[in-house]
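Predict structure. Chain length: 290.
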Amino acid sequence: MKYDGAIIRPPSEAHSLLLQVTVGCSHNKCTFCPAYKEKKFRIKTDAEIEEDILEASHYGRIDKVFLCDGDALIIPQERLEKILLSIRKNIRGLDRIGVYANAKSILRKSAAELARLRDMGLGIIYFGVESGNDEVLLNIRKGADRAKLATAGKRVKESGIPLSVTVLLGIGGVEKSMEHARDTASLLTEIDPEYVGALTVMVVPGTPLWESYTDGSFRLPDKFGLIAELGAMIEHSDFSNCFFTSNHASNYLPVRARLPGDKKRILGIINKIIQSGDSGVLKPEFLRAL
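Prediction complete.
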């Protein structure tokens, strides 16, 4: 299996075969993200992809495949269908294929095209929305406003592909902390995804966000401010049936909740931690990671 540069995948794809079909990210402008800055975006050739698929066919049973890098859904429909067909033809025991996506890549495909990908094995889309606040989205150069994010998320839902949405605690800074949290909860309610993963922004040297952090124009909420954001997102969201987690390595407080059923219990835990002011119950700084 050949990889170009470092490979990033969702926590839930830890045991998946990682098949790199694109290099880098088609957007690659978000101010907080250091992941693909050293990579020039390209779609791998059919020959490169097929070689890796055929190699994987000798590995034995593989339950899940995740298509890397940052935005594999951007691959044109016909080529992506060929990749999915080859995976299903050559890899035994396959249960699910997963992929990262952004608003641009989703909106380039119709609900019918997405449904066709679903029928060919695409079993989950990971969609980073980060925030539901338009000012925050503009500041972080997300490349889409709230309306586009909502339309993209609902299109995935319409297609029948399970949707996992990622949001970022702290990305609104101190000034827009609660506004960011409530607007994000409102966006999540509008999309109503099956899964939500809350991560905490980590300010990485070399990124534009780091520059704003060091010159003082961006101030990150403290630990309890970030936990308060998490509580506000949960409190103000209204899901049909969502598995909500904050168990990523970046977070101070790991949460696993089935919403709406677990809302009261989780909010009770969060409020108790905030009221106690005891940082000893939170993840220590040295254990946090991207």
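Summary: The chain has a mean pLDDT of 96.
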